[in-house]
Design brief:
The complex is a heterodimer of chains A (113) and B (113). With 113 residues, chain A is mainly beta. Chain A has no helices and eleven strands. At the A-B interface, β4, β5, β9 and β10 of A face β5 and β10 of B.
């Protein structure tokens, strides 16, 4: 089955700096890679996603890159703000039936004012 | 007009009891999921139903039994609760096909004492 590794587990940045979170996956047939943000006590919410036929996608201050050869993808947050503080999860959709997502272990991001 | 709703939000119960969590989605999706998020924030899929049919059944104890009366509802019944069952349980839904995004419910925090 799919295995997703996420690093780092915690990340502290100064407001205005950039944050980068990296994930690797094991199933070369995986075709969809979402990123979820989970604020304290809240549900995970999709912030950006990328499909295997695209190398990069950007939405305002967040961007995701995908390297299919190396089987890794990254989330980039620029000009971080205190409201970016949350736990971020990467995930990969493998070839198993049922749209199964395998999640990384999460990265706790703290943006210091 | 909540997209994915769960009840109850909090559940405190004693070891050995049986409890149920209910989930409903009004997005017209055909696939629903149960996830368990433990104290370390790991998100792990437990079950998935597509049009009332079980399609993903991860390695979950038999004490956990999902039921989908129709494609808008997915309930989770847990027998003989154990301390290790304490976690936040998230329901999610998606539409199988070209759109893969999964929408999560608000979660049910289960505490077994």
């Amino acid at each position: 089955g799919e295995n997703v590794e996420q690093h780092p587990s915690t990340l502290s940045v100064q407001e205005g700096d950039s944050a980068v979170i990296k994930c690797t996956y094991s199933d070369s047939a995986s075709n969809y890679f979402p990123w979820y943000k989970q604020e304290l006590g809240k549900r995970p919410q999709l912030i950006i996603d990328i499909r295997s036929n695209v190398g990069e996608k950007k939405d305002q201050r967040i961007a995701v890159t995908l390297n299919k050869t190396a089987k890794h993808f990254s989330l980039h947050i620029t000009e971080t703000q205190p409201e970016d503080s949350a736990v971020y999860f990467c995930a990969a959709r493998g070839q198993a039936a049922g749209n199964k997502l395998t999640f990384g272990g999460g990265t706790r991001v703290l943006v210091k004012p | 007009d909540t997209a994915v709703s769960q009840t109850p939000k909090y559940l405190v119960t004693q070891m050995g009891n049986d409890k149920s969590i209910k989930c409903e989605q009004n997005l017209g999706h055909d696939t629903m999921y149960w996830y368990k998020q433990d104290s370390k924030k790991f998100l792990k899929i437990m079950f998935s139903y597509n049009n009332k049919e079980l399609i993903i059944n991860e390695t979950v104890p038999n004490r956990f039994s999902p039921k989908s009366p129709d494609k808008a509802h997915l309930n989770l019944h847990i027998n003989s609760l154990e301390l290790g069952d304490s976690a936040v349980y998230f329901c999610a839904s998606s539409q199988e096909g070209l759109v893969y995004e999964q929408y999560f419910g608000p979660g049910t925090r289960l505490t077994v004492t």
